[in-house]
Amino acid sequence: MMEQKTVFPRTHISLFVSDIGETVAFYDKFFNESAAKVKDDYAKYELDAPALTISFIQNPEKVNTSGHYGIQVKTKEELNEKLNLARGHKLVELEEAETACCYAIQDKFWVNDPDGYEWEVYHFLGDVEQNKEKQAAACC
Q1: pTM exceeds 0.70, yes or no
Q2: Are 52 and 12 in contact (CB under 8 A)?
Q3: CA 53 to CA 99: how far, in whole Å?
Q4: Phi, psi (rounded to 5 degrees) for 20
Q5: Are 129 and 104 in contact (CB under 8 A)?
Q6: pLDDT per residue over 7-49, tens digit each?
Q7: Which residues share a beta bridge with 11?
Q8: In the predicted model, what is the mean pLDDT of residues 111-136?
Q9: Which whole number is the average pLDDT over 45-60?
Q10: Which domains, from first to last, does the chain contain?
Q11: 36 near 45, Cβ under 8 Å?
C-alpha cells in the first residue's frame, strides 16, 4: 500500500497592523486584487497564486517586525510583470539582480507595507554554497 502524502492546499498568515484602511489600500495594489472580506478592524485576502490566505487585524499595540515574507515566481517574465505593477503603484523599495541570498542566486524586488512588514518577490536562478557577507543578515 502506497503512503499518502499530506498536502496543505493554502498557507494562512495573520498579521497585526496599525491602520486597516492603509493596509487594505497597500495590499489591494500589491496583490492586484481586492480583499475577500473587510471589516472596521479586519481584512482577509484569499489568493490563488500563491495559495495564501492572509488576514490583518488592527491592533497597533501588537504590531511587530519579524524577518520578511517572500513570494516566489516561476519565470523572469512573471517577475518583471509583478515588478512593473509594483513600480506603477510606487511600492518598490529595492530591486536586486543575481543576488546571493539564503544560499541561492535570485532576481528580486522588495516592498514594505505601511507597518514595515517586508515582502520580497523573487525568481530563483540557482543554488550557491555561500551568501555574500553583507547580504546574509539582510536577506535571511
Answers
A1: yes
A2: yes
A3: 29
A4: -65, -35
A5: no
A6: 667 888 999 999 999 999 999 999 999 999 999 999 999 999 8
A7: 52
A8: 83
A9: 93
A10: 1-60 (3.30.720.120), 67-140 (3.10.180.10)
A11: yes
Q: Which residues pair with 121 in a beta bridge?
A: 71, 109
Please give the Cα distance from 1 to 48 (Å, whole number).
32
Strands of the sheet containing 92-101, edge to edge, are: 69-73, 118-127, 104-112, 92-101
Assigned C-alpha cell, 35:
480583499
Please check whether residue 56 is in contact with residue 20, taking contact to mean a CB–CB distance below 8 angstroms.
Answer: yes
Dmax over CA atoms of the chain, in Å, equals: 54
**Nearest-CA neighbor of 107 among 86, 125, 126?**
125
**pLDDT at residue 21, as a whole number:** 98
Q: Which three cell numbers stand for residue 57?
A: 487585524
- 24 close to 40: Cβ distance less than 8 angstroms: no
Q: Which are the contacts of 17, defined by CB distance < 8 A and separation ≥ 6?
A: 23, 56, 57, 58, 59, 60, 63, 113, 114, 115
Contact 58, 41 (CB under 8 A): yes
Q: Which residue has the cell 498536502?
A: 7
